[in-house]
Amino acid sequence: MLQAYNCDKTKPGEKRVEPDPAEKQIYRPDYVLHHFVHYSLATEFSVLNKNDTIKSGFKWNYKAIDPLSRFSNEGTEALMLHAKAIGPRETNLWEKACLGNYTGRYACRLGNPFPKNWTGELSDENGIKYNCYMNHKIEDYWASLLRTELKRLTKSEGEDA
Fold it and tell me: Phi and psi of 38, rounded to 5°?
């Protein structure tokens, strides 16, 4: 799972210009009053009425834009890998839709990350277009650490038998 989903639309550390409903959020546990998966549906701020918002020193806004939220630094503070299911219909015609020269109406839903030392080519040696960015900290540090730990656990279980 860790490596299979290590392919994001934005480069690690960069943020999209347009809002993203699936943006990763990390809060203090006591600040979030209700969660759904990793979405904060209700925070201490979002449940304030107009008077309480103004009393707290904030400007009232119907959209409940949380002035206490910010983007975290994925390199030094926190990183969340967003794993999601892809149904069979979402991979329809992937052999065509993922080609660099494809201009049809199907979208390529399979990730093919740009190489670490990308030199400008749009597709790999098989003609599959690059469409996402790998977080190399996940690949080089976390996946390596996980493999090492799994080997250690497997070895210790073998010794117990």
Answer: -110, 15
Q: Cα Rg for the chain, rounded, in angstroms?
A: 21
The pLDDT tens digits for 56-83 are: 888 887 776 777 777 677 777 777 777 7
Q: Identity (one letter) of the amino acid at 106?
A: Y
Which DSSP letter does residue 141 get? I
Question: Are the beta carbons of 100 and 123 closer than 8 angstroms?
Answer: yes
Q: Which two tokens stand for residue 66?
A: 């949380």
Q: State the Cα–Cα distance between residues 67 and 70, nearest whole angstrom.
A: 8
pTM flag (> 0.85):
no
- The rounded Cα 89 to chain-centroid distance in angstroms is 22
Residue 43 pairs in a beta bridge with 32
Interacting residues of 97 by C-beta distance below 8 A, sequence separation 6+: 104, 106, 107, 108, 109
Q: Give the burial string for 105-121 (b: 16+ CB within 10 Å, else e).
A: eeebebbbbbeeeeeee
